[in-house]
Amino acid sequence: MHNRQIRTGFPLATSCGPRWPAAARLAAIAALAAGLAGCSFNSPDAASGSQSVGIEGVTAQQARGIAREAYLYGTPMVASYQTMYAFNIDKNNPQYKGPFNTVNSIARVFGPEDTAFVTPNSDTPYSFAVLDLRAEPVVITVPPMEQRRYFVLQLMDLYTYNFAYIGSRGTGNGGGRFLVAGPRWNGKAPPGITKVFRSETELVNMVGRTQLFNAADLPNVKRIQSRYRIQTLSAFRKQRAPAPAAEVDWIPAEPPAQLRSSLEFYNQLAFLLQFAPAHPSERSLQERFASIGIRPGEPFDTENINPALRRALQEGMHDGQNAIDRNREALDGKTDALYGDRGTLKNDYLARATGTQVGIGANSREEALYPVLEKDGNGQPLDGRNKYTLRFAPRGLPPVNAFWSMTVYRLPDQQLAANPIKRYLINSSMLPSLKRDADGGVTIHIQAESPGKSRESNWLPAPQGPFMVALRYYWPKPALLDGKWVSPEIGRVAR
């Protein structure tokens, strides 16, 4: 991979970026009167054309375009729900963590058995919660902690916008009580609240990360995690609770393997829209969804629909996934522009969907940068049949305020791979145990087999087949944000 700063956006004309991996060209579709922000199409598809789909005023060509829009718009929501369902709704799921509005901390780092989402972070023990803000706000309490320990509680709405941060960078390490309110709440914060955050959606994912310095530090992390607390506002005030929100018949989440091909996707999206009041800038978009039957909270029957509409939905889903794949390849591993709040992403649904598939739940660039290395310095895909090195030059370690790490994930599922020494990453906390080069630099050996006892301290095990390396730079300094410091390339070792 060649490190270069690339901003994601909707390109001009009839393309939404190159596909990843290389495949057939993106199918062209006809322009809608009001399309996705910044991306228009003007090449009609003869297969769709003006054929009726059984809905007055909607042609197959138009339905295909709307289905594409809905796929890009809804991919983050449906993927978010997969995790919510596994962690907080389906009590029979082995990854179930607990009910809504409770902190569910994992007092260990993630390993190959943790597969609820792609590219899990194995640097920092996680704390998870889904906030249900329908009836009333919640109050999140965090304890004070030592200044050198990085922590962050990331608040992500159903759209996957990172709308608020509680943590070392955002609010400091002094602790506090933070009120999180949904889109329909009009009350006032009571005394004792440090800060108020507003969410656009009624369901919110909270992803907490608490820095672990080493294995001996785990009891300290457990102690901190035990003091993260979530209360409803009425419980915080010690007052009578308001009327509960209406009961919800939670539908099963679509399995990840089917997410990109099953028309159940559109039913999932319709179900989730009831928890996301339309943003003013998206009302016309949701009206277009409704024109083909995708309405908030209403079942979308994909079994008994007009065959022409079924084909249009399938084609639209295919078009949307092609756009994501092409965009992902164009990024060449630079993912920082895929994550942020609405003001940052500016309704760039292609960026949001691409970010979901690269790694859902990633932080905004000011909180963390995540370069992804999928190729070596010669542009060849990384493969465990080869041996590689990555070298940080003397005085050339990543410039961060918190810490950095590099983690190997097997492809294509982007999960951690088991290895004989159970090491999935190398990070800055491990520097004292890493061997330095003669000039003071640090060389990391990335390969499936041990590089030998003398180099094993610097060995980052790789799977036998295709893989990628995700770099994580927490609380990056200006040199990283401005592109003055760039990640080193991975070099293939000659046989």
Care to describe what's here?
- The protein is an alpha+beta fold.
- The chain folds into 3 domains: 60-86 and 253-358, no CATH class; 104-235, Sandwich (Immunoglobulin-like), CATH 2.60.40; 371-492, Jelly Rolls, CATH 2.60.120.1600.
- It has 9 helices and 18 strands.
- It has helices spanning 60-89, 218-226, 233-237, 264-273, 283-291, 307-331, 342-345, 349-359, 478-481; strands at 104-105, 126-132, 138-142, 151-157, 162-167, 176-181, 195-198, 203-210, 229-232, 368-369, 372-373, 388-392, 404-410, 425-427, 442-447, 459-461, 467-474, 490-492.
- It has a 5-stranded antiparallel beta sheet, sandwiched between helices. Strands 10, 11, 13, 14 and 17 form a 5-stranded antiparallel beta sheet that branches. A 4-stranded mixed beta sheet has the order 7-6-3-9.
- β4 (151-157) and β5 form a beta hairpin.
- α6 (307-331) crosses α8.
- Residues 1-33 form the signal peptide.
- Residues 100-231 form the DUF1254 domain.
Task: Briefly say what this structure is.
This protein is of the alpha+beta class and 495 residues long.
Characteristic key phrases:
single chain, 495 residues, Immunoglobulin-like, Jelly Rolls, globular, Cell envelope protein, DUF1254_sf, DUF1214, signal
Biggest β-sheet: count, sense, barrel?
A: 5 strands, antiparallel
Order of helices and strands: HEEEEEEEEHEHHHHHHEEEEEEEEHE
User: What is the arithmetic mean of pLDDT?
Assistant: 88
Specify Rg, calculated over alpha carbons. 23 Å
User: From the helix content, strand content and strand pairing, which structural class follows?
Assistant: alpha+beta
The number of strands is 18
